[in-house]
């Protein structure tokens, strides 16, 4: 697909500038930016140009080069796409409750707790859903292990929203009544129209910025890693590297859960399939 430059806009955005910016994104995050993201890059980054008071995109490219330490995070926050919802791809949580949690409760390596990583957590719906599933799945289990969740994303803006745990009420309208009643509190007065997640959920989640392509400031090994609709944006060598790192970060027999359109076939032989895009580490 050829890139069509639009010269009728407020700022000129050349193919050369787009290529420079998407190379920076790829070099630092591993994300493959296709030609069809040209218009999205313009729409997202023009806001940064106005905020910084720069004359145009060529100046922004120079500014980013000169101020990479301070500008990289706003740059990435601007261009990353965050689409999520509570209980998205619900079959994953069904498998967690019916199969994974009961199996983990029988294992010695969960004596210190079940540890889960939500990698690419976006605005928080995924880790809060994981927390609900864990806490409900552990109810009634004798000497049930504790649960803890690391929720990470490269985008600091969505992490800030996630850590607050406050959502428009429309975000939970489709959930079961029992889940809404137990795990969400309706706002009143100036907070009317919003819900806040239960403190019981919030207290078992730690939110942290993590760039999946850099060193991971993580000591724990996990029993479950969610990385849904993230791997799809990487090329094959990057996928191979990332899946190997996930395998190393999982305990023996740990679980990796990917998005509905993602597969490890031809990429990793360190997992076996136990359900739709649910994998168990075998080596």
Task: Write up what this structure looks like.
There is one protein chain. The chain is of the alpha/beta class and 283 residues long. It has two domains: 15-79, Chemotaxis receptor methyltransferase CheR, N-terminal domain (Chemotaxis Receptor Methyltransferase Cher, domain 1), CATH 1.10.155.10; 91-166 and 197-281, Vaccinia Virus protein VP39 (Rossmann fold), CATH 3.40.50. Helix content is 40%, strand content 18%. The protein contains ten helices and ten strands. It has helices at 15-29, 38-52, 57-66, 68-79, 91-104, 125-138, 156-164, 177-183, 199-202, 236-249; strands at 114-119, 147-153, 166-168, 184-186, 194-197, 205-209, 222-227, 250-258, 271-275, 278-281. The strands form two sheets. Strands 6-2-1-7-8-10-9 form a seven-stranded mixed β-sheet. Helix 2 (38-52) crosses helix 4, helix 3 crosses helix 4 (68-79) and helix 5 crosses helix 6. The longest helix has 15 residues, at 15-29. The two termini are 41 Å apart. The model has no long low-confidence stretch (mean pLDDT 92).
Topology:
Blueprint: H1 15-29, H2 38-52, H3 57-66, H4 68-79, H5 91-104, E1 114-119, H6 125-138, E2 147-153, H7 156-164, E3 166-168, H8 177-183, E4 184-186, E5 194-197, H9 199-202, E6 205-209, E7 222-227, H10 236-249, E8 250-258, E9 271-275, E10 278-281
Parallel strand pairs: 1-2, 1-7, 2-6, 7-8
Antiparallel strand pairs: 3-5, 4-5, 8-10, 9-10
Helix pairs in contact: 2-4, 3-4, 5-6
């Amino acid at each position: 697909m050829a890139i069509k430059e639009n010269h009728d806009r407020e700022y000129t955005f050349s193919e050369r500038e787009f290529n420079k910016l998407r190379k920076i994104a790829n070099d630092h995050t591993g994300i493959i930016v296709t030609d069809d993201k040209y218009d999205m890059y313009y729409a997202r980054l023009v806001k940064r140009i106005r905020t910084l008071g720069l004359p145009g995109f060529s100046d922004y490219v120079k500014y980013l080069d000169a101020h990479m330490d301070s500008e990289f995070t706003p740059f990435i926050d601007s261009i990353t796409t965050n689409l999520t919802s509570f209980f998205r791809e619900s079959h994953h949580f069904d498998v967690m409750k019916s199969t994974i949690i009961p199996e983990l409760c029988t294992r010695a390596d969960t004596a210190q707790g079940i540890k889960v990583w939500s990698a690419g957590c976006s605005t928080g719906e995924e880790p809060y859903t994981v927390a609900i599933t864990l806490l409900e799945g552990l109810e009634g289990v004798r000497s049930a292990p504790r649960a803890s969740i690391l929720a990470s994303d490269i985008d600091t803006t969505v992490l800030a929203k996630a850590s607050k745990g406050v959502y428009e009420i429309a975000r939970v309208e489709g959930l079961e009544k029992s889940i809404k009643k137990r795990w969400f509190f309706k706002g009143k007065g100036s907070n009317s129209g919003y819900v806040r997640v239960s403190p019981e959920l919030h207290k078992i989640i730690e939110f942290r910025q993590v760039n999946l392509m850099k060193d991971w400031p993580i000591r724990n090994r996990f029993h479950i890693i969610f990385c849904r609709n993230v791997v799809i944006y990487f090329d094959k060598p990057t996928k191979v590297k990332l899946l190997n790192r996930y395998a190393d970060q999982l305990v023996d027999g740990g679980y990796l859960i990917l998005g509905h359109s993602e597969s490890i076939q031809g990429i990793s032989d360190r997992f076996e399939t136990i359900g739709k895009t649910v994998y168990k580490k075998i080596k």
